Amino acid sequence: MDILYLLIPVSVVIVFVIGAVFWWAIASGQFDELDREAGSVVDDEESRL
In whole angstroms, how far apart are CA 13 and each of 2, 19, 20, 24, 26? Predict the structure, then answer.
């Protein structure tokens, strides 16, 4: 039962870290224009040359 006093704060910290990373990804534009990035993988411009 004493382990809960350790695991609950650790899990709360992990949730905040994951939330911070997700917020950073959204704020830095990681999810903007997903179609363009997907198309750039398929359309390799170096192979056209």
Answer: 18, 10, 10, 16, 20
